[in-house]
Design a protein that fits this description.
heterotrimer; A mainly alpha; B mainly alpha; C alpha/beta; A: mainly alpha; 11 helices; 0% strand; globular; B: mainly alpha
Chain lengths: 260, 286, 344
């Protein structure tokens, strides 16, 4: 690659990163607005709206709820996805294609439909909307992702290591827990992290399946109906920071694992 | 993989034991709900105990506006994905081939970072960025590129811009993963054999990155076809998509059966997309 | 690990505390502020669970997915009270327990709330689906005719609130059709105007997007929602609202008690609180949206009263027309026309 091409490419990267950050920059900037409208002209900076968000009980409860739902949904999706990937990696190829396809199908159905279907179905069974229903819905939509991510990282070397363990008279369960799981830990953590970040920001399923206890995106949607306000920007910025911390924790967790 | 080894054959039933929980979970909480929804769509609103009928589907296919909403959704999807794909490919390729290795992860992280801001909040932020007196129009007018503010929101242009922004993050990531796996010496070897840059790209790089492209296109097509938030907030009533029609009939008329029928049509289209992409999606794993 | 997860899931489902007395309220988002119910809970020890919904259709779906007795109080569009009462959804309310005498006489709408002499609901808050505008552009007198929306000077400057009932009925008023008399046949009369309105529109959108369009200066005027301006008056003093010459439409929300409620006494206490001067003032200035309290006794301060133009309430109610009672067939026909309007 010539030097000129390299420069052009680097310039392009800078432009795209700028474009990608455009709405985020505006979002963050107007969270420091002093007035009531998140519109130009900017008349801050003020921390007023951060105080308002942190002292809003509904917002804080929803935040805790979202953390719990996200953690449980991703745990379910990661465990099921891992087991399925583990099973598929040891299957005859003829079956493998069919199972992989079946596991991918939910990814092709939009969240609106998963939520609508679950609400009609649970209603038919006489089960009320609840956070457990949201957890199930989120596990359904993230399962294809955890499954394919973990499967893509299952390498033949793992099978050999596991077989070696069995040859040393480890039981299947021991081989799974003591050899495969630790070997797969980076992929498992990454799958969990991605599933969590999707559940954490998911709106429509949570909207259709909750009653009084709501998740953060639903709480934000509700407060949005009162019109745009720097309050929402401040809440959005805080959520961004929390997601960032969680995400970075996983990335660095991964790195450390990879190094050791 | 281990399939050729005698041990693997013995383990086949055991493999099922590992796959069964996930498949059972999906059967109970994904397939059964879909069937319940289809069942609901085969009855008219308020006549849940009457016989089966295709009236909701007939209604959908004969109402020009609803039918139009579907074709609108598809058009919007094709346009947005078609614009996002080359932009994302160029982005991923620039990161892989023009950014020093140690900086790549950081740039990639920056590229997908905004993905972690709330989608709804981010979309409302676009309203302010793209408005008549928003940042973009102010800059364009100051530079003398236009006299009148451009209709960047409340228009298809706006919806496409916001979709492209969203898809850039997902596609760049998917394509980057494929591109970064291509051994550098393979490209170098091709170049050393005297192949011009465009031939190295067409004959080595592009085919090897096809799985990443397929994954990116698949994920974004599903998102674009099913998204309610962006056309609702940014479209300003100029972009009427099928998810909006579904929410309109659900919210205004509580017509769950018609909404279910439209949802099912949407699902079939998305399934078609999976089938279309599945050869490449699988290829990505071997 | 799976078992642990399942156990936690189960715990989540069961973790609905039932210690203190509670009432369950299904309402619009103006009932979302926790501060709204603080004095009530303090005085009675009853806590209030609120599920907010946007459209009656959505509320009906929620009710269909609930068990009888799940809900105690329903805050519902006044236009829907009569048909739901006729379906047997509500318990009768004893007028003697309600401050009916405090209400603005024009806001009572007894024909919606009283069937065969039995009261099933009480109006709680109302507002106008008329016009809010930028007075720097449109002048300060506030005298506007619906016809002006179609002026060349407003081309591409109009914001239309995405709710078909008030828009269609107000177009009907342009042709001299009284909202109460509007029928399916009249849809043909307003059809061309509706599509012409689309051509004039900068945006057809929800509350937030249309308000943002006016706040940001992208639009000069919004049709379909008016008194929200009172809440932003402090920051954007040049915004104003008015009732067009043709009369316009006003909306109203009501409170009713579910017949299946297992806690009717607590439910009634909640209704009484919301209708009290304090409850009414808090509700009128809710963070989700401002509106007029149905009760003239609401304890609003002077600035709030000035911003809401509280002194003019009687004359405004006399000029505008209420939403007609809900009609399922007309509703479906309107949605079909509106779908066409949106799809253009």
């Amino acid at each position: 690659m010539t030097q000129v091409m390299r420069r052009v490419a680097q310039g392009y990267v800078a432009i795209v990163v700028g474009f990608i950050f455009l709405p985020v920059a505006v979002l963050v900037l107007f969270s420091f607005q002093a007035g009531r409208l998140p519109l130009p002209p900017f008349n801050g900076p003020s921390l007023h709206w951060y105080g308002a968000v942190l002292s809003d009980r509904g917002m804080m409860t929803a935040l805790a709820t979202s953390l719990v739902v996200g953690a449980m949904a991703s745990a379910v999706a990661t465990v099921l996805g891992f087991l399925a990937a583990y099973g598929v990696a040891r299957h005859s190829i003829a079956w493998r294609g069919g199972i992989e396809f079946a596991m991918l199908v939910p990814a092709s159905v939009s969240y609106l439909i998963v939520g609508l279907g679950l609400s009609v179905f649970l209603n038919g069974l006489g089960i009320r909307p609840s956070l457990a229903a949201v957890t199930i819905g989120h596990a359904v939509v993230t399962l294809p992702i955890t499954f394919s991510l973990i499967l893509s990282q299952m390498e033949p070397a793992h099978v050999q290591a596991e077989n070696a363990a069995r040859d040393l008279s480890a039981s299947d369960l021991e081989a799974l827990l003591l050899v495969t799981v630790p070997l797969m830990m980076p992929a498992i953590l990454a799958a969990f992290g991605i599933a969590f970040s999707l559940s954490w920001d998911e709106f429509i399923i949570a909207f259709l399946l909750t009653r009084f206890e709501v998740t953060l995106p639903v709480e934000i949607w509700t407060s949005l109906r009162s019109g745009l306000s720097p309050f929402i920007n401040a809440a959005g910025t805080l959520i961004f920071l929390i997601s960032l911390v969680i995400f970075l924790a996983f990335v660095f967790g991964l790195r450390r694992r990879a190094r050791s | 993989m281990g399939a050729a080894r005698p041990r693997a054959i013995v383990q086949v039933p055991q493999g099922w034991g590992y796959v069964a929980p996930a498949l059972g979970f999906l059967a109970l909480f994904f397939v059964a709900p879909l069937i319940a929804m289809v069942w609901r769509s085969l009855h008219l609103k308020g006549a849940e105990n009457a016989g089966l009928t295709f009236d909701n589907y007939e209604r959908f296919f004969t109402d020009a506006s609803l039918w139009g909403a579907l074709s609108n959704s598809l058009e919007l999807t094709v346009v947005s994905v078609a614009i996002a794909l080359p932009l994302s490919y160029a982005m991923a390729a620039s990161i892989v081939f023009a950014v020093p290795r140690r900086l790549q992860v950081i740039i990639l992280l920056l590229t997908i970072l905004p993905f972690w801001t709330s989608y709804v909040v981010r979309t409302y932020a676009w309203l302010i960025v793209l408005g008549d007196r928003g940042l973009v129009n102010t800059v364009l007018i100051a530079l003398g590129l236009t006299d009148e503010p451009l209709a960047l929101v409340n228009s298809r242009t706006g919806v496409v811009i916001v979709f492209v922004h969203y898809f850039l993050m997902i596609m760049t990531l998917a394509i980057y993963v494929s591109l970064s796996r291509i051994p550098a010496n393979l490209i170098k070897a091709a170049a050393d054999l005297g192949a011009p840059v465009w031939r190295v790209f067409l004959e080595v790089v592009l085919p090897l990155s096809a799985p990443g492209v397929a994954t990116g296109v698949f994920l974004t097509v599903v998102l674009a076809v099913g998204d309610y938030v962006t056309p609702q907030i940014i479209g300003g009533g100029r972009e009427f998509t099928l998810p909006q029609a579904i929410m309109l009939y659900l919210g205004r008329l509580a017509d769950t059966p018609l909404a279910a029928a439209m949802s099912f049509v949407l699902t079939l289209i998305a399934l078609g997309a999976v089938l279309a992409f599945s050869p490449w999606l699988k290829a990505g794993r071997s | 690990m799976i078992r642990m997860t399942l156990v936690s899931v189960a715990t989540l489902t069961l973790a609905v505390p039932a210690l203190a007395e509670e009432v369950n309220l299904l309402a619009w988002c103006d009932h979302d502020d926790p501060a709204l119910f603080a004095p009530f809970t303090e005085a009675t020890g009853i806590s209030v669970n609120v599920k907010s919904y946007e459209l009656t259709g959505a509320a009906i779906s929620i009710l269909e997915q609930s068990r009888p007795g799940d809900w105690d109080v329903f805050m519902v569009d006044t236009a829907d009270v009569r048909r739901l009462a006729e379906e047997g959804m509500f318990a009768p309310l004893d007028p003697a327990t309600l401050p009916l005498g405090d209400l603005f006489p024009g806001a009572l709408l007894d024909s919606h709330h009283v069937i065969d002499g039995v009261r099933y609901g009480i109006p709680e808050k109302f507002g106008f689906n008329t016009i809010a505008y930028d007075s720097r552009v449109l002048g300060k007198d506030g005298k506007i005719s619906m016809r002006e929306l179609f002026d060349a000077k407003l081309k591409g400057r109009v914001a239309v609130y995405d709710y078909y009932w008030p828009i269609i009925l107000q177009l009907g008023q342009m042709h001299g059709i009284e909202p109460a008399d509007f029928g399916i046949d009249d849809l043909a009369t307003i059809r061309d105007d509706l599509f012409a309105l689309k051509a004039q529109a900068k945006i057809v959108g929800d509350l937030v997007s249309t308000q943002t369009a006016v706040n940001a200066g992208d639009s000069d005027l919004v049709i379909g929602q008016a008194e929200w301006v009172a809440a932003v008056k402090h920051d954007l003093p040049y915004l104003n609202w008015t009732i067009q010459d043709e009369g316009g439409i006003w909306w109203s929300e009501s409170l009713a008690l579910f017949k299946d409620s297992t806690k009717p006494e607590a439910g009634l206490k909640l209704i009484q609180y919301l209708m009290s001067p304090e409850g009414q003032a808090r509700l009128a200035t809710a963070s989700c949206y401002w509106g007029f309290p149905a009760s003239a006794a609401a304890t609003l301060d002077d600035t709030q009263k000035a911003n809401l133009r509280f002194a003019e309430v009687d004359s405004m109610l006399a000029k505008a027309r209420p939403f007609p009672p809900y009609d399922e067939v007309l509703d479906a026909a309107m949605v079909a026309l509106w779908t066409e309007f949106l799809a253009r």
